[in-house]
Amino acid sequence: MNARQSAPPVVDGNTEVIAHLGWPTHSFKAPMIYNPYFESAGINARVVPMGCKAEAFPQVLRALFSLENIRGALITMPHKVSVVDLLDEVSPTVRVAGACNAVRRDAAGRLVGDMFDGEGFVRGLRRKGVQLAGARALVVGCGGVGSAIAASLAGAGVGAIALFDVQAGTMEGLAQRLRTHYPAVQVSTGSTDPAGMDVAVNATPLGMNPGDPLPMDMDRLSPRTFVGEVVMKTETTAFLAAAQARGCPVQVGTDMLFEMIPAYLEFFGLPTTDAQTLRSLARLQY
Question: What is the reported pTM?
Answer without folding.
Answer: 0.79
